[in-house]
């Protein structure tokens, strides 16, 4: 979103953290929301480094207090991130995948006071330009030790920046840090008290939120200038961590919201356009678009149901597949066993690449769904939560240990080399690519990876 999940998984996204290479501006000057800058080819061949360490090809690195799995977003030379700083020692998140500590409620209600903070940094130097305490208090609900209280990636538009802290509120500032408005979010229970992670998005002056939980799930549209509610739609849905997606297709503009029970699409007034059932037991990856199609996927490490869908524009009503179907009038193709858990797939140079939490890698033909590269183990990859990114004919996969596996974007699987950060650089947030820079947010700091003089 966007566990960090358990992120983005389960979280979310943590976070989850998205997507798309194909439909976003390539090597853009700005990255306005979660996963909208992952393809750096627009910067020009060789403009971005494919080798780095904690010191090599690092333009700057800035330590960040507390913990947050929100991805960095960028607008006009400024970087925005969130974090949550405890007044005491909180439980340390463990790296890797594990199932022995699933239910966070067993630790009881939170007791530590936290500062929920927004940071603005200079893209060129890493200097902190301003920081603001959005909220201070004891969290109203617990969260999984692998999640954070600042897992939702911020959204930004030309006038404002929006910081959403699930179960607390959404806070709006101008680009110089002046508070403009805030809106309280009523706390709700999440599955096994994992916490929240789905990020807000902004479109034409409106802020859209999806809050899927165990008590009162809903989709919400707010006026970006005032914070006033424009509409709210109740959802018959349990906890999910997928960030919604604005699909601007040839027929209309839609708000697409993945869900465990049903994936739904609304018009921009909150009216349901279409939906379907048949997702995995948790929805975390963000939808994305290319070739005029919408791609939606979800998966989980413990279930065989891991669907990946390609959908045509113009659908209406229930478009669910029958039991043995893999396509219908509105669904171009469906692969029912290939979806990832946390990382959002990336479409790069006409190939769909899929990264799996447990250290596997695969690719598909995005137009047909046919396998190009069968599921292949990344040697010593361990656990992956961050979504992959791409440039210069390479796919980059960052694991939770801060090691990036640089993979040749070719039908033949080949790891070209690996890049390692510092020992305290646990990584669950998804990086972003802007201009000739790669921004990597870790548990300890924010890195700007850049070739000297570029």
Notes on the structure:
This protein is mainly beta and 454 residues long. The protein has strands at residues 58-63, 73-75, 78-86, 114-122, 128-137, 155-156, 160-165, 169-174, 179-184, 201-203, 206-211, 218-223, 229-234, 245-248, 253-257, 263-266, 272-276, 288-290, 293-297, 308-311, 317-318, 331-335, 346-348, 351-356, 360-364, 371-377, 389-391, 394-398, 403-408, 415-420, 432-434, 437-441, 445-449. Strands 14-15-16-17-21 form a five-stranded mixed β-sheet, with no helix packed on it.
Q: What's the total helix number?
A: 0
Class by alpha and beta content:
mainly beta
Question: Level of helix content?
Answer: under 10%
Question: Quick one: biggest sheet?
Answer: 5 strands, mixed
The beta-strand count equals 33
Task: Return the average pLDDT rounded to an integer.
Answer: 92
User: Biggest sheet: strands side by side, in what order?
Assistant: 14-15-16-17-21
| Overall morphology | globular
Q: Could you tell me how far the N terminus lies from the C terminus, measured between alpha carbons in angstroms?
A: 31 Å
Uncertain runs are: 1-26
Approximately what portion of the residues adopt beta-strand conformation? 35-45%
- Rg (C-alpha, Å): 20 Å
